[in-house]
């Protein structure tokens, strides 16, 4: 098996990855640790298509769901801290209680987000679609970089949509 860390560092150099990870990635051989870095550095990864959707599907498909990353097919999650919907993934995330989530949507992916009971969700919508249902004092903030949003609000729920059009605003 090839050293994915070295391979990702080489690809990352072309995308302008920071020096910290350019030096760190080649030493990592554990795919789960690499997936954790993807989540930790999600803004850079999604803004720079790093690694590519094909790369994720080829080398990480069997473990992405464990990290809340979906690229194809259907998914259904409840109170998941991170959800990353890419490619043609379609599914739902239900948040309740005082739980908090970060949601990222790109490509042709679709997320049906239902937030209730004081939960809080932060969404970065690069492309794709999201339907947000907020109720029972739940709050959802959507940073919209160019996707499609529909919403339903009831029982003191709140959905705030922030339109962002410049790549520099994705930080």
Domain unit count = 2
The poorly predicted ranges are none
Element order, helices and strands? HHHHHEEEEEEEEEEE
Q: Which class do the helix and strand fractions yield? A: alpha/beta
Share of residues in strands: 25-35%
Mean pLDDT: 94
- How is the biggest beta sheet arranged? 6 strands, parallel
Overall geometric form: elongated
Report the helical percentage.
10-25%
The whole-angstrom Rg is 16 Å
| SS field, number of helical segments | 5
Total strands: the figure is: 11
Walk me through what this model shows.
- By secondary structure, the chain is α/β, with parallel strands linked by helices.
- It folds into two domains: 4-64, no CATH class; 68-170, no CATH class.
- The chain is 25% helix and 35% strand.
- The protein contains five helices and eleven strands, in the order H-H-H-H-H-E-E-E-E-E-E-E-E-E-E-E.
- The protein has helices spanning 4-15, 19-24, 31-40, 42-47, 53-60; strands at 69-70, 74-78, 82-85, 90-95, 100-105, 110-115, 120-125, 129-134, 139-144, 148-153, 158-163.
- The strands form two sheets. A six-stranded parallel sheet has the order 1-3-5-7-9-11, with no helix packed on it.
- It is elongated.
- The model has no long low-confidence stretch (mean pLDDT 94).
């Amino acid at each position: 098996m090839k050293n994915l860390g070295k391979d990702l560092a080489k690809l990352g150099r072309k995308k302008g990855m920071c020096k910290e990870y350019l030096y760190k990635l080649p030493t990592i051989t554990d795919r789960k640790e690499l997936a954790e870095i993807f989540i930790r550095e999600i803004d850079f990864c999604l803004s720079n298509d790093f690694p590519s959707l094909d790369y994720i599907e080829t080398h990480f498909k069997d473990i992405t769901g464990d990290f809340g990353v979906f690229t194809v097919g259907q998914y259904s999650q409840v109170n998941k801290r991170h959800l990353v919907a890419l490619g043609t993934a379609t599914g739902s995330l239900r948040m309740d209680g005082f739980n908090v989530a970060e949601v990222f949507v790109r490509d042709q992916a679709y997320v049906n987000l239902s937030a209730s009971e004081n939960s809080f969700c932060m969404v970065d919508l690069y492309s794709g679609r999201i339907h947000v249902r907020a109720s029972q004092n739940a709050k959802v903030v959507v940073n919209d970089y160019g996707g499609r949003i529909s919403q339903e609000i009831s029982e003191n729920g709140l959905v705030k949509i922030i339109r962002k059009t410049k790549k520099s605003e994705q930080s």
